[in-house]
């Protein structure tokens, strides 16, 4: 099957997944509601006790954006596991379509959905006092970083969804997506953590992405965080893509 037909099939699968999202607004609602609830909690409950050298709302929003991306990307695993357990994938196998389009459709839908929910979270943050200073070019770069991060997590989520035996197991397997931002620079500076956690927070993949977003949106120093963020996203995304492809071929083998 040539590339043009594969792209057309991927677009068809994307349209299918987008329709499912529109028909299941509770999925998007929870994807947005949980990060917003955490944002409000940190801004109004814990924010007064945090000393980050400036307005805490400006410090915490980049971390909330990444938390939102983690929640949203995790649903890719559940969607794929649901298609597998309901026999939808077997039906697709009987059709003259590119098999890669199934995964591509799920992952592309995840990226688009997460960019929309991220925008909603940012609008809420602005409404409660977030004051970004980035110009349009920096905002464009910030969205590019977010899209890379979501793409990487979505491919990993796709692999986990194919590995899981049920949608419930797939949901549990993505727990670390929500956990990593808590042990990063998302909510407090890593320097305030005990030495072991400090080292982990400084060297895990979420921190350079957050620091890059913080620099683009708030004008703080970025240093080598942008390069590290791109490398982490590329490496994680490639690993997830290869794993998802191998698992999909195994799960759909005749």
UniProtKB/TrEMBL annotation:
Coiled coil: none annotated. Pfam families: ABC2_membrane. The keyword Cell membrane applies. InterPro entries: ABC2_TM, ABC2_TM_bact-type, ABC_2_transport, Nod_factor_ABC_transporter. Keywords: Antibiotic resistance, Cell membrane, Membrane, Transmembrane, Transmembrane helix, Transport. PROSITE patterns: ABC_TM2 (PS51012). Its main location: membrane. This is Transport permease protein. It comes from Nocardia suismassiliense.
